[in-house]
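Q: Can I see a sequence and its folded structure?
A: Here is a first one.
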Amino acid sequence: MIKLNFSRELRLLTPAQFKYVFEQPLRASTPEITILARRNDLQYPRLGLTVAKKHLKRAHERNRVKRLCRESFRLLQHELPNYDFVIVAKHGIGKLDNPTFTAILSKLWQRHIRLAKKSLSN
C-alpha cells in the first residue's frame, strides 16, 4: 500500500536547501504561481513553499494557499520525479477559488513530470 503522508523528510527546511533550488531551477509557471524544481540525490521529492505577505496580506489566505499546495504534493508525491520543488506564490493567487487553484497546480505538476522525463532521455 502506498503511503500518502507529508512527513518532515519531504519538506525543504533550511535556507541552503531553498538556495540550491533557486540557483538553477526548471520552471513551470502561470501568472499566479511558479513551481521551481531541481534534481536531488534522494529517492523521493521534497517541497518548499514561499507565500509572501506582499501578495496575500491575511494569514488565513496564506495558510489556505500553503494547505492546498501541500495537499496537491502529498497526493502526487509518488508520481513526481526525485526533485526538490519550491512553489512561489505570485500576485493574484488569492483571487483563485480552490478548484481552479488545484487544477492549475495539477497542470504545473504534469509539466514538471514531462520536463523530468525529457531531461532523463537526454
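Q: Show me another, different protein.
A: A second, unrelated one:
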Amino acid sequence: MAIFVDESNNEPINGIRSKREWVDLIKEYLSEKSKGVTAQSFAKNNDIDVNQFRSAYGKYDRIAKRELKAQPLTEAKSNKGKSSKKKERKRDLIKSFRSQLKKTASQSAAANNNKSLKWFKGIIDDAVRGRKVSRPEVGKIYTYAYDAKYKNELPYWDRYPLIIYLGNYKAKNGNTNMLGLNLHYIPPRARQAFLEELLPRANTDTISNKTKLKVNWSMVKGMRGSDQMIKAYIPKRIRSGIKEVKPSDWINIIFLPIQQFVSKGKRYSANKVWRNVR
C-alpha cells in the first residue's frame, strides 16, 4: 500500500517543533548518520527527547531524504541563475556602452576630426565632455597633456595619454606617480574590446555619470595589450589639467585619433606602436 505524506502540514508536533524544523533536523541527522552518529546520540546532543525524535523521523524521513537528493540540483539551478544574471548584466552594460556611440553617430565625421585636431593643438577642454579634477579616482578614465621626463631615452611616448586610472605608484626614488592603462597603445577596436571586457566590473548596471570600473593591475595584467598599456606618469610632468572623461563619452573618445606619439622629438606612427600589441 502506498504511503502518502501531507507536505502542506506545517503544524508543530506536540506543540514543540514544526514540520519544517523536524525535516531540517532529520536532514542534519542523516548527514551525521553517515559518520556513525546514532539517533539516540543525535537527539541527546540536540536536547531532543529520543522517542519524540524517532516519532518525527518515522513521519518525515522520506521528505528529508527527498530534499537531500534534490539539493545538488537546486544548487546547480541557483548557480545557473547567477550565471545567467551575470551574463544579462554584462549584455546590458555593453548595450548601454555602445548606445552612446549611436547617439553621436549623427554628428559629422568632420566634427569628430575637428575634435582630434584641437587635441593635437592641445585644446583638451574642447575635445572631451567631462570635468577637471585634482584627485583622480581608480576605475575612471582621464586624459591630459604630458611631457615625458625621459623622452630622449624612450623609443616613443604619448603626448596626450588616455588612461584608465589604477591608483598611485611608488617609484624607486620615493616619489608617488600615477599608474594607468593608456588606451592609446592599442588600436581603437582593441580599446573597445578591452573596455567591454572590463564593463562587468563596473559599479553600475548601465553607463551613467557614476560609472567606474573596479579594476587593479592584477586583474588586467593577463589581458591582451595590457603589458603595452601599463604606464606610470609623473604628476609634475602633466602640462594641463587632468580631465575626467564622462562615462557616456568613453565609447567616443576611444575612436578619436587623439594620440600623438613622439620619438626623439619627432611624430611617431601609431600603426608602428600597435604592431607591438600581443
